[in-house]
Automatic annotation (TrEMBL):
InterPro entries: DUF58. It comes from Engelhardtia mirabilis. Pfam families: DUF58. This is DUF58 domain-containing protein. Residues 54-250 form the DUF58 domain.
């Protein structure tokens, strides 16, 4: 396991993230038949009078778009959605909570992925927006990564994702980079994050010790965000129980993403970024060679 980040330490994208911009391109969302070339249709609320669909109400939605007729029929709050044309755009949500910094290699991979996806979007002629999910939600240009990112927020992932959903703007693609190691309703989170976007993509970034922990006997586990601790015996039985819980968590995110037309992929830091692009992101259909 790599050492944790030092207090105040900031990480910048590595050279590999920039070098790979000439080798790969993003696989765009599939466009509905009949769309005009060069345009994207977001599923957010727009000025068009053509209603596209309805979806469940999520905190932060415009209450003026509530469909009271649907509520009367189903007893569920539904929001009307309208076709809204927006320029192709990528919005990158980067989790900068303290748990992301417990392993420096894990945090570095998260920064490199953020730089890579933003850079590839721009290479395709699309604007890219960086959103740092920390103590405050910070909207930045991707160049902010060059000034370094500190992973110090003590807010739980559930709160970070709620903020992101509440401030979501129309965009063609929304990409979340996080370890997702928190108690979160994956189904509700994906529905909220998928609002006002053509495609939601979720990248889970983990350290090797989070994927394959080693037996260490009596240990004290400390919550990187809340600071609470728990004394446990990390033996073979505890590790097997942890693995099953991690598998259930990942399956929940994967199925929730697929239900709303999105996608989920878990990456473990360690292999070079070049290998992860070739052996994981390209194989799973996220990237394609230029």
């Amino acid at each position: 396991m790599a050492a944790a980040l030092e207090p105040g330490q900031r990480l910048r994208p590595g050279l590999a993230a920039r070098a790979l911009l000439d080798a790969w391109r993003l696989v765009p969302p599939q466009k509905p038949v009949g769309r005009l070339p060069g345009s994207e249709l977001a599923s957010g609320v727009g000025a068009s009078l053509e209603m596209q669909d309805r979806r469940s109400y999520a905190p932060g939605d415009d209450v003026r778009r509530l469909d009271w007729g649907a509520f009367a029929r189903t007893d569920q709050l539904m929001v009307r959605q309208y076709r809204e044309e927006v320029a192709p755009k990528l919005e990158l949500l980067l989790d900068v909570s303290a748990s992301m910094g417990v392993d420096a290699d894990k945090a570095q991979l998260a920064v490199d992925l953020a730089a890579l996806f933003c850079g590839l979007a721009r290479s395709a002629g699309a604007p890219a927006q960086l959103v740092l999910l920390g103590d405050q939600l910070t909207l930045s240009e991707p160049e902010a990564l060059d000034h370094g990112v500190a992973f110090e927020s003590e807010r739980p992932v559930s709160e970070l994702l709620s903020d992101a959903a509440a401030h979501a703007r129309p965009t063609a693609q929304r990409v979340l980079v996080s370890d997702l190691l928190s108690e979160v309703d994956a189904s509700g989170a994906t529905r909220s994050l998928a609002g006002r976007t053509e495609r939601l993509s979720i990248l889970q970034v983990l350290s090797p010790s989070e994927v394959e922990p080693e037996a260490s006997g009596p240990s004290r586990l400390v919550d990187a965000e809340g600071g609470s601790s728990l004394d446990v015996i990390v033996d073979r039985g505890a590790i097997e129980a942890y693995r099953r819980r991690l598998e259930r968590l990942q399956q929940s995110w994967r199925e929730s993403s697929q239900r709303i037309g999105g996608r989920f992929l878990s990456l473990t830091c360690g292999p070079p970024l070049t290998s992860l692009c070739r052996e994981r992101l390209a194989v799973e259909g996220w990237l394609e060679p230029r």
